[in-house]
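It is worth pausing here to work through a concrete case rather than discussing structure prediction in the abstract. The textbook approach is simple: state the sequence, then state the predicted structure, then interpret. We follow exactly that order.
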Amino acid sequence: MMNVEEIRDYCLKKPCVTESTPFDEVTLVFKVCEKMFALVPLDELGCKIALKCDPEEAIRLREQYPDAVVPAWHFNKKHWNSVIVGRAPGRRQVEQWIDDSYQLVVAGLSRKQKELLKQANG
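Step two, the predicted structure:
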């Protein structure tokens, strides 16, 4: 299973990702080109991560993994899931969900932002 540091490292390896705590001192927020794709509350028991998700996929994941994937608290539940990492089906699956969230946000970026991201990738 992944811990908070491993999730943080995984998110920060992605192009143009920044980390901040804009809401409070205990919630890490990861953004790509200033758009949120992941949040990790540091004051929760166990490791959780809120991730953006395609609405249909969000419902499917909640049904398939009811102990691990739930609607994200304080977010639009149509577009955000919370993953209880210790109950997820494995590290690779959590990484895939992070990747999906990142890609969903990148797909919604403006043409200019996508060009900057492309330049950052070399």
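Step three, interpretation. The chain has one domain: 4-116. The chain has a mean pLDDT of 93.
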